[in-house]
Amino acid sequence: MNNVVLNNSIRFIGLLLLQVLILNHVNLFGFINPLLYIVWVLLFPIKKNKSAILFLSFLLGLSVDFFLDSGGIHAAATLFIAYIRLPILNTVLGKSDFDYLLFNIRSIAFIKALSFITILTLIHHFIVFSLEYFSFNAITSIMYNTILTGIFTIILSVLGIILFTKKK
Amino acid sequence: MQHLIYFIRKYRYFLLFILLEILAFYFTIQHHSYHQSKFVNSANFISGGLYNKVNSINEYFHLKTENQLLNEENAHLKNQLEIIQTAKNDSIYTVIDTTTHNIQKYEYTVAKVINNNFVKRNNYLTINKGTNNGISPELGVVNSKGIIGVVKNVSPKFATVLSILNSNSKINVRLKNSNHFGSLIWNGNDYNFVQIIDFPRQAKLKKGDTIITGGKSAIFPEGISVGTIHTIVIKNHQYHQINVKLFNDMSAIGQVQIVKNLQKEEQLNLEEKSNNE
Which InterPro entries match (chain A) (predicted)? Predict the structure, then answer.
């Protein structure tokens, strides 16, 4: 159990530093900065008690906000995907009851894991860019940014998860 | 009462979610209003300190360009000095005004940009000077090539700067060769180009005209360069959109100067007084 706490703490700090020091300065094609830190939310163990993930996701988002001077944008988006994570997973897997303790994202079929990551990433990015532009007139810019940045976040997340987690 | 407790127990995660979400939205709304100082900003001990550490390594890679810039500015200043010296030697122009002679209007402080954003819709920079160095909110930030932004939040050692690449930024500018004024904004598309609005119809514009700060606000001195006009779109005989190419490359900013207007208080007090009458 302690191992899980330690693992998640290291992942929290590691992803935060990776995000604010490197990924926010990538500027691929001039404007794409993948928001890889949400992988932390995807990999957090699933438990019946949801208050820990809600608090910690809020904290992770707020930390990114502090570094990016973006108010509470990332906190709002990360908290939202942390809350809807379980319902989305249920929908993707097509069943409402599974073993919470033994669940691992590597243990489910690749296509199901990919759609789980894709749905959450796109929702997160859409919230981030909507709050950033804060205007209905900018809906094309919002969608454009959501999709392009989303693609790169998804590619990096999948590669990161394959490379850095063990298959069980 | 029992029902209430039951209700809270049943929906406790949802209530926690709503509570935190409201807090996040509160920070977001605060972030979008120009006049409020913000709780969430990078001018704090942890993020400022971390950016400072990383930047002290990064700046070694930019020493060459930084030197180049300093050299260029030196040459420019030397030229100006030469012009003044020549004017002084032609005794006709020499007027020593003893009353205003010692009054300095602007004071410049050097600072280093330790974090720079330019691709988001609302961009901020973080600099390594704060209240300990006499920095306060609402001071102008410039470098040798032109304007950068306005100081927003300050902590003892760091400050955040509202970049001109921000939807809240609105800076008074004018044409270099005439006295027509407009406001500088950014539409969020390309960080090399900013836009001018509220430009009077009778002003004659040409592609390539130089834009400088207007000096109508108490923040920037007059005559700091901004950029040159790149494209002009005219609709219904009005200037619909004027794109200005910035002299500064906003993606590579190292050393900056913070401008403190020493007569700002006096000017604002006077304006306030006239408004109240």
Answer: Cell_shape_determining_MreD
Q: What angle do CA A101, A104, A109 make, to 5 degrees?
A: 135
Q: Does B122 sit within 8 Å of A21, measured CB to CB? A: no
Beta-bridge mates of residue B227: B211, B246
Condensed to tens digits (0 to 9), the pLDDT of residues A85-128 reads 888 888 888 765 666 666 677 778 888 889 999 999 999 999 99
pLDDT for res B179: 83
CA separation for the pair A127, A81 (Å, rounded): 10
Listed by number, the residues of chain B in 114-153 with a beta carbon closer than 8 Å to a beta carbon of chain A are 115, 117, 119-122, 124, 126
Per the CB < 8 A criterion, the answer to whether B22 and B35 are in contact is no
Delineate the domains of chain B, giving CATH numbers in brackets. 171-246 (2.40.10.350)
- Integer Rg of chain B from CA: 23
Contact A33 B119 (CB under 8 A): yes
Q: How many domains does chain A have?
A: 1
B268's CB contacts (< 8 A; 6+ apart) are B218
Interchain pair A73, B122: CB under 8 A: no
Closest C-alpha among B55, B258, B38, B59 to residue B166? B38
Q: CB distance B40–A72 less than 8 Å?
A: yes
CA nearest to A128 within chain B: B28
Q: Are A35 and A126 in contact (CB under 8 A)?
A: no
Q: Could you tell me the residue range of the domain that residue A122 belongs to? A: 2-164
Token digits of residue B101 = 């002679």
